[in-house]
Amino acid sequence: MINLGRTNTDRFALWWRNIDKFLLISILSLIFLGIFFAYASTSNIASEKIYKTDYLFIVKQILFASISVLILVSLSLLDPKQIEKYCILGFVIAAFLLLSVLIFGVEVKGSKRWINLILFRFQPVEIYKPFFVLLCSLIISNLQIGDLKSRIFYSFCVLFFSLLLLLNQPDVGQSLLISSVWLILIFVSGISIAVLVSLGSVIFFGIATAILLFSERFSYIFKRLKTFVDPSKGDNLQTQKALDAIKQGGFTGRGIGEGILKEKVPEAHTDFVLAVIGEEFGILMILVIFLIITFIFLRIFSQFNNENNHFRKLVLIGLSCLVYLQSIINLGVTLNILPNKGMTFPFISYGGSSMIGCGIIFGILLCFTKRKLS
């Protein structure tokens, strides 16, 4: 027992010595900010509206954050070779969960994306995304599979399988997100711009064709696009209220608990959390949050340039772009620059599935950015 204790102590000491502390502190800052904003801005009202119990909202947010940190630390303690070794198994499990939505999924607002668990609704795509990046990176970087074109073809098969599952839910936003990340992965692997543009066009027109052929199933897409192009022809309540809230908040905000957006928009604590923050804490706080996520992206990108292992290079750029693109999409929707996608902001938005998925992503990133042992 004594030796085991010493071994664990030595392991954590080694982890602390080699972990990228700036990256870790930035990630933890996002997590703590998410908890703070949930408590200061939305806890009472959201709890009463959704759960009929005071403070259950913030308790669940802390629970999800704690699970996320546990996952994050556990993955960052691993050797990078262990993650590479078991990433196929992780993908199979995540794919099984995504497939199970077809059977056990709960339909909400015309989409079947969630599995109803005891404590919360679980969205498997949040777990699926990091393992999708891992598997595609493994295939593209594996020289034993064949030449670059063959490896890209096999990774495209993984993408095609993923799009079939996601478009069936339907979830066009996540489909476009993982397609964009896949294009980034093959671009980094050294494919020509002409081939990249051709593949991107095929994917875009393929998704567009699916939407047109099954227009009834994707009717919500047409409504959102119609409203986005001409707000007078649809229900633009959420986006308009979000913009008004940011304007009223100004640069420094109206003050803690003084915002009214959370009372008028049902998804304010998830999809439009930045608008709630902007109203109560000002545009300055939104800039602070985005500076943190940008610093994380640039920090990982600097590690990407110094990494010699092709698999790890692809994972670093793939997962960091996944997080950063999702952040930009969430902000774009809030500012009415993009149509509503129903996508959360990493660690800031409320949501157990999103928090767990982010824990997996950032745990792998911390593992792959650890200082190499001499």
What features would you describe in this structure?
There is one protein chain. By secondary structure, this protein is mainly alpha-helical. 73% of the residues lie in helices and 3% in strands. Strands 1-2-3 form a three-stranded antiparallel sheet. The protein starts with a helix and ends in a 6-residue tail after the last helix. The model is unreliable at 1-5 (pLDDT under 50).
Task: List the SSEs and their pairings.
Blueprint: H1 2-18, H2 21-51, H3 56-77, H4 80-104, E1 105-108, E2 111-116, E3 121-122, H5 125-141, H6 148-168, H7 172-188, H8 193-213, H9 219-229, H10 237-249, H11 261-264, H12 273-281, H13 283-306, H14 310-334, H15 352-368
Antiparallel strand pairs: 1-2, 2-3
Question: Can you give keywords for this protein?
Answer:
374 residues, mainly alpha, three-stranded antiparallel sheet, 3 strands, 73% helix, globular, disordered N terminus
